[in-house]
Amino acid sequence: MSKIVGIDLGTTNSAVAVVDSGFPIVLADSSGNRITPSVVHFDPESGDVVVGELAKRGRNVAPKTTVYSVKQYMGRRYHECQDDARSVDYDIKASDKGGVEVRLGGQSRSPQHVSAEILKHLKAVAEAGLETEITRAVITVPAYFNDAQRQATIEAGELAGLTVERIINEPTAAALAYGLDKLSDRAKVAVYDFGGGTFDLSILELTEGTFQVLSTNGNTRLGGDDIDQKLFEHLAGWIADEGGPSIIDLSAEARARVRQVAEMAKIQLSKEESFEVLLPFLTPEYSFSGALSRETLEGLAKGVVEGTRAHCRRALEDAKLAAKDLDQVILVGGQSRMPLVRRMVSEWFECAEFEETRGDLRLGEDYHEAEGPTLNVSQHPDEAVALGAAIQGAILTGEFKDVLLLDVTPLSLGIETFGGLMNVIIPRNSTIPVKAGETFTTAVDGQREMLIHLLQGEREKSKDNWSLGRFTLSFEKAPRGVPRVGVQFEIDVNGVLHVLARDIKTGQERLERVQSVVDVDDADVQQMVEESVEHAFDDLAARRWIENRLKAKEILVATQQGVSLCKDELSDEYLEELQSAIAEMSTCLGPDPDQDPDYVGDWQRLKELVKSMDELTADLAELQMQIVMEEMLKQKGLG
Fold this sequence. Notes:
Actin, Chain A, domain 4, alpha+beta, Substrate Binding Domain Of DNAk, Chain A, domain 1, Nucleotidyltransferase, domain 5, six-stranded mixed beta sheet, 4 domains
């Protein structure tokens, strides 16, 4: 019987998964990306269609023909969507039947046709990964989608050449992915699904191995896009207050750039306390920069997150349950990464403890323990729904019948990156077989090859982990940051690691096989884990020092080159200021890593110096650009 893939067709991101040899996996594209941005670019001249990351990058260049967040228009009437149109840069109009159409130059397309392009891309990803034709799929939808929206989703699948075997609710899919079918009978869970464009809260009860939905409540017009819009409006007002153009005076391309920075800030501020907003040349005469804090973001987002609370309360009331009656609250959707969301949900449901298997999130002083459900964030919020859909597909084909004993990776696997840090690709305790990958680039101009140093362990610095081997991949000479090398790790059912490195430009690749990474002595694993805990704070400080040192070294070299080039054009006062800043940063950098690889300085001070140097060299950078332009004109005989 042919495979049935599971597809999470999301507002912001989408993914395709399959059950292979009894194990659910999210499939990666040729670049090693398992998550595909739900963005489609249409070229009005050639008719070409681009989907995913490349289309997302093109939003700034062609905002009117690049479509995103189209899921919010699926199966809806035009009069219901007019307010939502403010949050996108492309145009929508009413169709002949009163629905929605997206304007793309001289033509229009329905949301189903746009979504079909995303599904075609995911179908191609699955066919490339599985090396077989894919015609059947289970597609997920928000629990609160009505029949028209569900039918529109089925139509999109059919337009993509898929037979849609089942439309299932995202919370049910997430419950399957979290393994909640392994809980005891009568266990009750709440699935808090906060995605890019929709929100729903579902209460499920496990009865004799099956899930029964006790209640569901939500809003198909509430999601992370609303936070993006509030942040976009905040940035627009901030720019105007600083003497910049008002938002209505900006071009469509400039507005798209502001919107993109708003989204980047929201994502980064889920991990950091501040984000540097850089918007050069919004107009030929005006550039903008400034620091945005997590506190500001949370102030803007709190009202949106608070809007989900009433739906949670109503779902509990409909299920005739109190929060303390639940066993778990699981978080799904990219928006659930926000610390603010986790704090507020934990407070509403009076969660007893916090299970975190990824990252170093701290909930804050206001978090308290209570006798309530567990807040469960153990799965990747952008992958859980697709994995659950794949499991549902395997149930339909009869592949899932018995409980399987699954092996896991005892320690994290990754590669060494510039600065001697370990970049984790497959985290510890991942169920095998598993496949994951990332894209890397070069850090040095003219680099002709990349060393792939394979590592296993839990420490931040490469030297503190176990080396599994090294190999190199050659590519064309290019400036730093230009080459793109996709590195994909795959652990098979026997625990053998296969590492594929591919030059994305030329397709040249190298495949290495490493003996079992699962069959590791328990005592060695225990020692590695204990060391990672013992040195956690020191390791984190070392990582932050190295990351900030690399940034500082880069800006220091650029500043020294700029001073050398423009020395005769600089005032004595400005030159003295620059040389003083260079000296202070050089001192703060400490000894060369080759001389003292274990040296860890004051990373916070270094971060402050980088910011100050950035501000100080703004005039120097402008002068450098002027000199370079003049030189180019002279070479062309125009100067």
